[in-house]
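To whoever picks this up:

The parser on our side crashed when reading a file containing two proteins. I've narrowed it down to the boundary between the first structure block and the second sequence. Both blocks are reproduced below exactly, byte for byte. First block:
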Amino acid sequence: MNVVVIIACLIVIVILLKIFDNVKNKRTYELLKQFPSPSTYPLIGNLYLLCGPLRNLLPRADKLFEPHDRLVFWCSSIPVLLLKKHDDIMTILTQSHDRDTLGFANEWIGNAILTAKYEDWKKSRKILAPAFSSQMLSKYTDVFNEKSSALVHKFKEVVDTGEVIDVWDHLIKTNIYTIVENSIGVSINNIDGKGEKFGDAAYEALENVVQRVITPWLHPRFIYQMYLKITGKNRTIEQLYHLPTKILKEKMTDYENGNYQFDDVDSSKLIIDQIIKGGMHEASFTESRMSDELLQIIGAAMETTALNVCFTLLMLAIHQDIQQKVYEEIIGLLADDEKLTPNHLFNELKYMEQCIKETSRMYSQVVATLRRTHKECVLKDNKIVPANTLVFLAIHWAQHDKDMYKNPFKWDPEHFSEEAEQNRPKNSLLSFGYGPRSCLGSKYAMMSIKTQISYILRNYHLSTNVEEFTYADLHVDIAIRSKIGYPIKFTSRQKSHQ
């Protein structure tokens, strides 16, 4: 009898809470009725419709999103408005700067510049911005050249052998080494041997965050923490944090012991310096927060650059005519052993930049971003997005809009010719965001990508056993990835012209 009473009381409490919620959020729910929504269930919501293996998430999402430019999802009892038209996305990006991940990413990547809410994000941006100034970006060029040269040397093991290799492992390692050295001014080899494991852990982190989002029973934090322990994934999180935590502690120890100094007037603008200074001057920058900042900077930089280079190389290997144009642009600008300068990376290699942007459009490093509206936002057709609503901005789908791009599912650098860009709204490419919360490291990424592609194409002709790369070959976590890897065959430039 007692059990029956308890269950009855719980049911009554749930009903009363629902009634209270409906009264409290009456306007929000009324406004959301303007937008279509899949069938939903109390407590569960309807996000379960995306549940399943990540490898096939993209076709499931396409099937669900395809008929609609706007769609309301329910994450348990929390409404999420999906928008995938450029005009709608720009309305939200320009009016709402607060990002809210519902805490789903906290266990894996913490709370820092990529995931923090607006007030915390402003502090992060102020602290980190000097490390991405034009002056500092110019100083990073030496490391870009050095690591790209080492990458070319690595590929000598397979050049002219006829072997087709997946270039991902080489690219992710190169980009870990590059961002770590540019972050702290010290080679990763002088820290420990955990760099490669960090890349594996970062990849697993992104998959696990998305898997949690589309798996409703993993939403409650206490259940998810139990799940992490039972599955052993908490050890992967420890592995993920090992590198940034070790880097930070060693630098802070050096500073405390007087072995490493900087001051407010004439200090290095390295990322690690800015983070440590932030800890000195900003109370909210605890040691844990500083570690989160370093983790997110290193993780984001290595992933975005490695993915773009891999996809761009694969596209150039498939599209031989375009590869030849990029190669001719490079050799028309640089002598055989000439290093790239900041001017080359900022102002030259324009056709290569078109290829990089097209890769970013087709295979976006950020599939979507989230915003929490702090006020009502009026869309172009006068429909109103309620205040305090979580909005899912579907960047990948916006960048495959046939109204924006002539052949949205074809990789074509002419999508970013000067003429094509003039015929589209400004800021149509949203892979690095827009507005105040746009990616702080977008110029850094472009410079790094240009350097790596320049070194590779100057030395090697690329081909592949992939005749056509299709939409079906993609899978998704936070970024778009290739199911079949990035298979490339390298031939020395001298032999490729014989």
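<<boundary where parser fails>>
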Amino acid sequence: MSFKEGKELKVRVKPSDCCSNFSINIGHDPDNLALHFNPRFDFGHDVNTIVMNSLSGGSWADEQHEGNFPFTRGEEAKVGGFTGPAGLLPELPDGCMINFPNRLGDVKYDYFDIRGEAKVIGIKIK
């Protein structure tokens, strides 16, 4: 499945009742991620925080933290994403959009992965 500039990705997930965190990853492979989108209910030092980052050649860049946290354990949520020349724009379940820079600088990504304590309900690219 590829995701390229100008396309919209919609993911419907349902975090488990005891979910500590889950992640949505878009990139080229597990060592090169344009976007690591990681809602954290209670993970490490983060509580009700969305952490975003990129991974290049297996090395993480600086984390970006988002305080708006419209996720609830046990409830389905829709996360959208758009790509553009300036960056990636994750859309949260409450409609807010976050600007995350396209640190890898590419216009097409072929790797997509969801990890953690959330069930995938659906995925759509248009």
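After patching the parser it read the second block fine. The chain has a mean pLDDT of 92. The chain has no helices and 13 strands.
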